[in-house]
Amino acid sequence: MNENSGFDCVSGQCACDATGQWVTACTDGGAVWNADTCFCYWGTSALPSTSPDPEPDDEVYCWWDWWGRDCEPDEWVDTSYYEKVCYSDGTCYWDYVDDGYYTDGDCEEQWVSRCSDGSVWRYF
Prior knowledge:
Layout: E1 7-10, E2 13-16, H1 21-28, E3 32-34, E4 39-41, E5 62-69, E6 75-78, E7 81-86, E8 92-97, E9 100-103, E10 108-115, E11 120-122
Antiparallel strand pairs: 1-2, 3-4, 5-10, 6-9, 7-8, 10-11
């Protein structure tokens, strides 16, 4: 089970945040609690205040879910260089200094509306 999931199971019976501890810990920690998915989302924007159901229908249930796919990999930026090193006797050489850093890959992340009929609605 995912550590951000609020499902509690006791004696074979599972319920979403039966004691209320997950919603409290999640929101107190600065994250977003989504009761529909019983999940604590870190590093997201606030849960949309509008209805997740774009086409109200009694037979289809929709909920907000965090969509964070299509992420590009982090990229290594090579800033390596050569540094001149000299000894007291006047001899010098060029020493290679391996240096660089990673930049975060771009991600397309947003809240989407998922529905019980399998549809996913993305709002741009």
